[in-house]
Amino acid sequence: MADPSSYRPKPGEIPDSPGVYRFRDEHRRVIYVGKAKSLRQRLANYFQDLAGLHPRTRTMVTTAVSVEWTVVSTEVEALQLEYSWIKEYDPRFNVKYRDDKSYPYLAVTMNEEFPRVQVMRGHKKKGVRYFGPYGHAWAIRDTVDLLLRVFPVRTCSAGVFRNAARTGRPCLLGYIGKCSAPCVERISAEDHRELAEEFCDFMAGRTGTHVRRLEQRMAEAAEEMEYERAARLRDDIGALKKAMEKSAVVLTDATDADLIAVAEDELEAAVQIFHVRGGRVRGQRGWVTDKVEEITTGALVEHALQQLYGEETGDAVPKEVLVPALPDPVEPVQEWLTGRRGSGVSLRIPQRGDKRALMETVERNAQQALVLHKTKRASDLTTRSRALEEIAEALGLDSAPLRIECYDVSHLQGDDVVASMVVFEDGLARKSEYRRFQIKSFAGQDDVRSMHEVITRRFRRYLADKERTGEWSDAEEPGAEGGAAGADGAPGAARTAGAPGPDGAAGDPAVPSVSTLTEEDGRPKRFAYPPQLVVVDGGAPQVAAARRALDELGIDDIAVCGLAKRLEEVWLPDDDDPLVLPRTSEGLYLLQRVRDEAHRFALAYQRVKRAKRFRSGPLDDVPGLGETRKQALIKHFGSVRKLRAATVEQICEVPGVGRKTAEAITAALAGAVPAGPAVNTATGEIMDDMVDMDGRDDAEEPGTSGGSPGEPVSTGAPDDRRGLER
């Protein structure tokens, strides 16, 4: 723990103006971002007697070793810069609502020639109309199923649509009247778009017009004695009314408003939001957060507004935003919301009438959400703390290992040897920190040697970054001059207080300095944060290899252990016998979770590499031949066999293929053995396609696999030798 007085700036050095400040830990990682109307007054609150601070604030200031700030012109700019930095740095001590963008929306893709109605999650896309969010995807599908009777808009995927157009036969929905079948030209593109716009109008709240129109058409059909058509229209009206009943009118003045309620205790807070459009509740969502510092309800509301409306693709700001408490001060937030909407926004506390009654309903939902959350997490929080304490006690550590890294090696009979690194912080997986490696110093199967290589590469990068922490430059940081644009585009001055100088002494707060540890965007390099415990998947040989790699690098402050899967034994370096933890031990259970996650992540990457190798072909070895021209060649000749029989002149006829490339293609195909479409033409040379963003050839890829970091990739390749995998 650090003494806050060691990096406390002098009061006269801190400007008495609006700005945003950042606390950094010993590894230069940003751990807290805040804003203030007066930086001098706000920062002084952090450097009072530790006994008078909130427990979480005390933990934050003792974890930090430096503080820096950026001066801006107005409080609105401070609000915007604070939000952008929280999103960029993901500080561990900031209020972060656990909203992972997973709430489903009903989306209409008006940016396509034939708009499609579907369920969408994640970030919003330009040209798509969104309705919601909804609590469950099935609620969207129920609503859509009712409305397709009246608005038979396309709901099929692009592949189904193309297949129907090719065969001239619509899908089942087209036959039962729940799709107008534009794929087979039963309806023109213009008429289908008009149908989609009517669907959007109904979902936007203009329901009465469509119901009255159908009632009029039903009456006309009855007068003309077309009773079957009248019966269908009657059923359509019933479907619309049933869909309308799912979102009853709550505000009789057809208001567009968002209602935000907060339920909190000393440790956590739950936020519930009701989205009201056209007087009807169109969606609901909820967040829960840990209160890492002493914070008011108004400040929680402010953070919720940032989360809700801060993204460029975030929710549209309605005309009214009703809250339980106003931020202090409220004017910058009001101005920011007005700027996001483009017109006036009423941010207020409802006092009476329907809006007050609806706010009470939202508050009850927030209270219930907090109770449910605490019921689910109470045991989880206790269990995680006990597990970390048990691990520290069993391994003889001085303190609980708050950051654990686990490594595993995976291969298929010695081919496609890869390794994984997973990270658990405070007992929870931190998937953004996952990394994956390809073994490249040797060929074949050797788990011990592979483990030694991976540990060496990971901590060699850590030491390289650590050595550069003392290399402080006198060059000015972007935005160091008053009024100049900062690194994030915000005006102001960035200054660092308490940062060590070249000789290790505290630097002059008035002199800007930049650590080469940080990337250009200011975030720590990916391997700059060390663990307290390294876990390897394996027994004594793997543990010895990991310990030897750390010893060779001169690292003696990181504990190492291994977990052997056969008997779930914990192996320590230089111990002849394993450590056997009780089967009921929470510490053993946490180690198992960490080990299994590393195994899963390594196996997922190994399968991706294997599938990629199986799908490779002779054209992959032609230098300068990209995927576009490969496809053009196959399309022109029809198959690789016909391309192999073609002459150089015939290949040159393909657009974009010159004579030099054609000769290279001919040579590559002449040397390849035509063994079918899935030929591995690898030469045996160890390839390393894992190059870092800056071009280094020993870099490791982050754990991103198509979805959220750390998720496995489905390759679609058959796996009939899964039993041989490790």
Description:
The protein is α+β, with helices and mostly antiparallel strands. Among the domains are: 4-94 and 475-497, GIY-YIG endonuclease; 257-371, Nucleotidyltransferase, domain 5 (2-Layer Sandwich), CATH 3.30.420; 395-469 and 526-611, 2-Layer Sandwich (Nucleotidyltransferase, domain 5); 615-724, 5' to 3' exonuclease, C-terminal subdomain (DNA polymerase, domain 1). It is 38% helix and 15% strand. The chain is built from 19 helices and 20 strands. The protein has helices spanning 39-46, 55-63, 75-89, 137-147, 158-167, 172-175, 189-203, 207-223, 227-245, 297-309, 331-341, 353-395, 447-467, 540-552, 586-614, 627-637, 640-645, 648-652, 659-671; strands at residues 19-24, 30-36, 66-71, 105-108, 117-120, 129-131, 257-264, 268-277, 280-290, 320-322, 346-348, 403-412, 415-425, 428-429, 435-438, 494-497, 533-537, 559-564, 569-571, 701-702. Strands 12, 13, 14, 15, 17, 18, 19 and 20 form an eight-stranded mixed beta sheet that branches. The chain has a five-stranded mixed beta sheet with strand order 9-8-7-10-11. It has a four-stranded antiparallel beta sheet with strand order 2-1-3-16. A hairpin with a 4-residue loop joins strand 18 (559-564) and strand 19. The radius of gyration is 31 Å and the shape is globular.
CATH class of the domain at 395-469 and 526-611: Alpha Beta
CATH architecture of the domain at 395-469 and 526-611: 2-Layer Sandwich
Provide a count of the helices.
Answer: 19
Radius of gyration: 31 Å
What low-confidence regions span 5 or more consecutive residues with pLDDT below 50?
Answer: 470-522, 673-726
**Alpha-carbon distance between the two ends:** 41 Å
CATH topology of the domain at 395-469 and 526-611: Nucleotidyltransferase, domain 5
Overall strand count: 20
Main sheet attributes: strand count, strand direction, barrel closure = 8 strands, mixed
Computed structural class: alpha+beta
Helix content: 25-40%
SS strand fraction: 15-25%
The dominant shape is: globular
Mean pLDDT: 75
CATH superfamily of the domain at 395-469 and 526-611: UvrC, RNAse H endonuclease domain
